[in-house]
Amino acid sequence: MDSEHSGYDGGRSVADGLRLVVRAFVYAVVGGIALIAIVTVASVLGPTLALDLYTPAVAAWWTVFTAIVVQGVPFLLLGTVVSAAIGAFVPEKVFTRLLPRNQALAVPIAGAAGVVLPGCECASVPVAGSLMRRGVAPAAALAFLLSAPAINPVVLVATSIAFPGQPQMVLGRLVASLATAVVMGWLWARFGREEWLRKPTSASGSSSSGWRAFLPGLQHDFLHAGGFLVVGAGAAATFNIVVPRSVLDVFTGSAWLSVLLLAVLAVVLCVCSEADAFVAASLSGFSPTARLAFMVVGPMVDLKLIALQAGTFGRSFAVRFSSVTWVVAVTSSVVVGGWLL
Questions:
Q1: How far apart, in Å, are the Cα atoms of 142 and each of 139, 193, 308, 310?
Q2: Which one of 62, 231, 291, 305 is most buried, by most CB atoms within 10 A?
Q3: Around 199, how many Cα atoms within 13 Å sit in the side-chain half-sphere?
């Protein structure tokens, strides 16, 4: 009788899991289609709903905005699906078993893990906090925090699509981002102080796992990151149209100023890493090194990440870690860009 009851429960759990998968797939597809439809309808009907929108400048704005969003949504969707699946199904103890106890060795391994364990930057902060609670050295957890949203397969594929025929841009992003993550991990291992870092003592959010955690994670990540994609696309389109060419020439004429400008814009625009390559590709007036800096800095230092880090690890940590990360990321971009681009 007990075996029959357990078999019934097992069958019901499988059915519940299948229903959740179907529901998650439907939500993801419907959400993506809805977002594309909204952008498309807005681009078609927008000029009729406002004053004097038939100007060439506004037409160019809609073109840039629509192109960035439509190109970025598929990769954003894929990235959030993979990120939610990892958060729901990959046990946290896997990381502690794979990483050596020596911090100098654990940092590059944790950084390289970002290549095979993708996740968006919004999810990287709670994941890093979870790793610390499970005994992973802070230096290794922070290296993973920086690398996972910057060098995962979804981001690299999106970069190759955004920059067709330019494999050096994909390689440059991989090398510069990984170097930044590893250097920051080593810097924290050498100079970081315990009083700067407020280690999380309890898990934030739901403690559920499996299929019941997958769907809420997917919904949250896609809606949250999708909103930043739309805002970032609008800001990038506005930047392309509103800022006078004479002002841009001041920066584009100087290799250093163009890099610094896009590195600052990456912090302000807060574009999701699965879509920031399309925004960078649209900034065609800037040098390849400057656009590389935009893609390296963005997934590691932006306003939403600074806020997340301050809430998770403390304001003292967020200010120090973000500022040093920005400097290291810009330096790495310049070095790698000068070498490859």
A1: 5, 14, 13, 14
A2: 291
A3: 15
> How far apart are alpha carbons 230 and 236 in whole angstroms?
10
Q: Report how far apart, in Å, the C-alpha atoms of 68 and of each of 119, 229, 236 are.
A: 21, 9, 9
pLDDT digits (tens, 9 = 90+) for 47-92: 554 444 556 767 777 777 777 677 667 766 766 676 667 666 766 6
Residue 23 in contact with residue 4, Cβ under 8 Å? no
Q: At 263, which helix (H) or strand (E)? A: helix 255-269
Task: Transcribe 53-122 into DSSP letters.
Answer: --SHHHHHHHHHHHHHHHHHHHHHHHHHHHHHHHHHHS-THHHHHHS-S-HHHHHHHHHHGGGTS---HH
C-alpha span between 14 and 6 (Å, rounded): 12
Q: What is the DSSP letter of 284?
A: T
- As a whole number of Å, the CA-based R_g of the chain is 21
pTM of the model: 0.69
CA distance 144 to 146: 5
DSSP 111-123: HHGGGTS---HHH
pLDDT in tens, 212-269: 667 776 776 677 666 766 766 677 677 667 767 676 667 777 778 889 999 988 887 7
